[in-house]
Specification:
Order of helices and strands of chain B: HEEEHEHEHHHEHEHEEHEHEEHEH
Structural class of chain A: mainly alpha
Shape of chain A: elongated
Shape of chain B: globular
Helix content of chain B: 25-40%
Strand content of chain B: 25-35%
Number of domains of chain B: 2
Number of strands of chain A: 3
Helix content of chain A: 55-70%
CATH architecture of the largest domain in chain B: 3-Layer(aba) Sandwich
CATH class of the largest domain in chain B: Alpha Beta
Radius of gyration of chain B: 24 Å
Largest sheet of chain B: 6 strands, mixed
Structural class of chain B: alpha/beta
Largest interface: A-B, 58 and 69 residues
Bound molecules: adenosine-5'-diphosphate, magnesium ion
Number of helices of chain B: 12
Oligomer: heterodimer
CATH superfamily of the largest domain in chain B: P-loop containing nucleotide triphosphate hydrolases
Strand order of the largest sheet of chain A: 2-1-3
Strand content of chain A: 5-15%
Amino acid sequence: MTTTTAPPVGPTPTDPRQAVDPLPGAGSTWSVSWHGVRTVATLELRQRVRSTRWIVSLVVFGLLVGGVSVLTWAFARQVDDAAWTVGPTMFGFIAFFVLFLGLLVSPTLSATAINGDRAAGTLATLQVTLLSALEIVLGKLLAAWLASLAFLAVSLPFILWAFATGNTSPLAVLTTVLLLAVMLAVVCAMGLGFSALTARTAGSAVLSYVAVASLSVLSLIIFGLSVPLVSGIETVQVYEEDWEAWEREGNEYPLDGEPMIPCTWVEREQYVSHTERTWWLLAINPFVIVADAAPDAVRPRDDYYGSFDPLALIRQGVRTARLGPPETFNYCWRELEMTGQGFGAGTSDDGRPLSPVWPWGLSVNLLLGAAGVLFATHRLRIPQRTLPRGTRVA
Amino acid sequence: MPTAADGAVGPAPLAPAPEHPGIVVSGVRRHFGAVRAVDGVDLVARRGAVTALIGPNGSGKTTLLLVLAGLLVPDAGTVRIAGHDPVTAGLTTRALTGWMPDAFGTWDSLTAREVLTTVGAAYRLPAARAAARAAELLDLVHLTDLADRPAHVLSRGQKQRLGLARALVHDPQVLLLDEPASGLDPRSRVDLRVLVRDLAAQGKTILVSSHVLVELDEMADDAVFVSAGRTVAAESLAAASAARRPWRLRALSQSGLAGWLTAAGVPWRPEGGTANGFAPPPDLLDSPGSLVVDLDGEAGAADLLRAAVGAGVPVTSLAPASGALEATYLALEEERR
Ligand SMILES: Nc1ncnc2c1ncn2[C@@H]1O[C@H](COP(=O)(O)OP(=O)(O)O)[C@@H](O)[C@H]1O
Ligand SMILES: [Mg+2]
């Protein structure tokens, strides 16, 4: 009908079909290649992060963390009676503040990544290429995670400042930074799942914040409110000082030194809290995970008491909550003192050994993140049989 | 998971088997809730030919193209892209198919060149190859000047051209163009037509959906008409051109022309009038003007022109009053009423 005068659009110099990955199965829903993930991540970073607003938010983030760090430093110097605790106190507060801001920032990166693209009409153009659904999801996750790691990187100098102030174990810096990074990845992955769930970006953003709030605040509130439910007056075995027997034996209070009061077993009605049934509410908390995984502060040999290290307090509290009440209560202080029980790191007040809770919490969080990724991938597989309500493919 | 079919086709089948037509659709249905968007479409698009998919708004053209592009599973019916089923051999058909969506979204922070290299990477072209291909395509759609500016500065027509280039990145054998001409200026439309004809001449299968019928007259070899999700007619452009349709005849004196046509027994009507024979002449002009007559294709036109010139009528032009497809389309609309 028309003469062909256009420049040749054919393949030159090599046939691009030869370059098309000929592996059978590559590009189908669950296959992954680094090339594909990197392609999507690069695209995401260019598309979403290439704007000056990001530089501004990074600077604001850095200023906030810096400001809070200075305040913590001043606070710790004032409050802490022992000089050695200033470093650990600063470290704990700064780590928590960075985690708090990170949890706020991360969902904004991923929670609109899929439904936003669908609304903009760019998702389907990616889906029809040879990229697999999982590559698209992982690429978006990687991009969102890298962007939140940028915020972590901005806060790193302040974390290191706290470390340099002293008495924080280098291992604590390592576990804290690693777990902060992992928790941000988890939040990004959950946000991605929500962005595949709802048609509107506002909906998925709200759901992501609800999820973050549930993990970090709501779980804590529920734990607190549920304490009366798992507590009550129970009859327990108590090993205590028997003053009556001591007096019956005609002993008198010595003028010098401690009285030698015998101890005996009695049954007592006592208020006990079975927090071993609800400790997991605390364990799934990102703040608890970070606090629990950090090793104890480095104590000077001569200084035993006097610590306002927030991470250590949380660690002790959560691990104790996990143990629940002991089978028997030992109030025989004299004997306790003699055996040296009840003191020292790694044991509860009544001398039982404490074990870390963070592996549990971390596992739950990783499972939630994986669920987000799997769900998003499931929603992106093509050809689609059912469309989410209120969406068009293109 | 590689499906059984994906595994079975293996590396070789990226080249279409020559005996397969480009696209075969039979009895395809697809509904969204209560809406039957596609409700029984049959069509064959030949290799090396341009097939027009014509239908009013909401007739299911876009939905059908989504099924062909491998984005939607049809509820019923079968689709073959160069002999492969997009549902069971999705990857193979995706490698073979280029799709240009109608609602054109673009990554607007990327430059035009980055858009094309990204898509190249997504089709697993090596970086150097993707860059060369991007430059080639930018030149082809005349966007080289704007290649390194962010896509959000592009006008609608320029974005549309970028969308076309994007569909061509992996040199697909089958091209699905959804309303490619909308938003294009006349120059770009001509370019598009030339490009599409050129691609067809290279043996690619091209399916173009549109309701801008004049466009397709020049571009298409075959036409498939859909309405309310159904195929209502399929014919070749050659047949459509030979069909009886209105022609516009212009002479130096409109009233003189009317007199001659009446005497020659040729039914005529004024511009915009209805074809009911020898209606009493409205106020015709003695000055140059035109009248509409129904003729049987080019042959009928030649006969009429010869007679008029022989009778000394000062004819200045004779041309189809509507495109061949438009005539068929309107006739189908007429039938449905
Ligand atoms: N995702 C969807 N959900 C609900 N209805 C849809 C969806 N996509 C298309 N439709 C409906 O299907 C019909 C066909 O749409 P479409 O294929 O876009 O038509 P065309 O491209 O021919 O204008 C329309 O009535 C449209 O409203
Ligand atoms: Mg359409």
